[in-house]
Amino acid sequence: MKYCLLFLLVLFFIAPNVDNNKSISQVFRDGFYDYITCLDEVSSYAYKNIPLVAKLYEIPYKNAYNKIMSDRTFTKHLVVSGETIDDIIKKYNYDISNEDLKYFRKIVYKENINIISDDYNIEAGQYIVVPSQ
């Protein structure tokens, strides 16, 4: 029974990609991409609509916040052209390791979610909030 269900699940993802002009490898590759896209959409839906999942997604941020912000405060910074988030973080916090820099990025991104893009790009002239010593 479980093999039958697995077969149906595989067909569910590759069937929309079957076309006379596609090879078998293209059909399976496109089906695999559909599967990955489906998982991504399910995770973003669950994050936005299921409170328990949203709380689970917040755990890494809370851990980073507790680790970094124990002896720091937030400072407002005007972004100048050519500055990166790493440059700004290092300007206000000296002697931080690369591992700590990862935690700082999480905090800065979460605190400035409408200003900073997903790939950590920021526009000049924006004010962002940065943890500082």
Structure characteristics:
133 residues, mainly alpha, two-stranded antiparallel sheet, 5 helices, 2 strands, elongated
Structure explained in plain terms:
- The chain has a two-stranded antiparallel sheet.
- The protein has 133 residues and is mainly alpha-helical.
- It is built from 5 helices and 2 strands, in the order αααβααβ.
- It starts with a helix and ends with a strand.
- The longest helix has 26 residues, at 24-49.
How would you briefly describe this protein structure?
With 133 residues, the chain is mostly helical.
Itemize the secondary structure elements and their pairings.
Elements: H1 2-14, H2 24-49, H3 51-68, E1 73-78, H4 85-92, H5 98-111, E2 127-132
Order of helices and strands: HHHEHHE
Strand content: 5-15%
Form type: elongated
Strand segment tally: 2
Please identify the oligomeric state: single chain
Helix count equals 5
Q: Average pLDDT, to the nearest integer?
A: 80
Low-confidence stretches: none
Strand order of the largest sheet: 1-2
Radius of gyration: 22 Å
Helical proportion? 55-70%
Q: How is the main sheet built?
A: 2 strands, antiparallel
SS class: mainly alpha
Tell me the distance between the termini: 60 Å
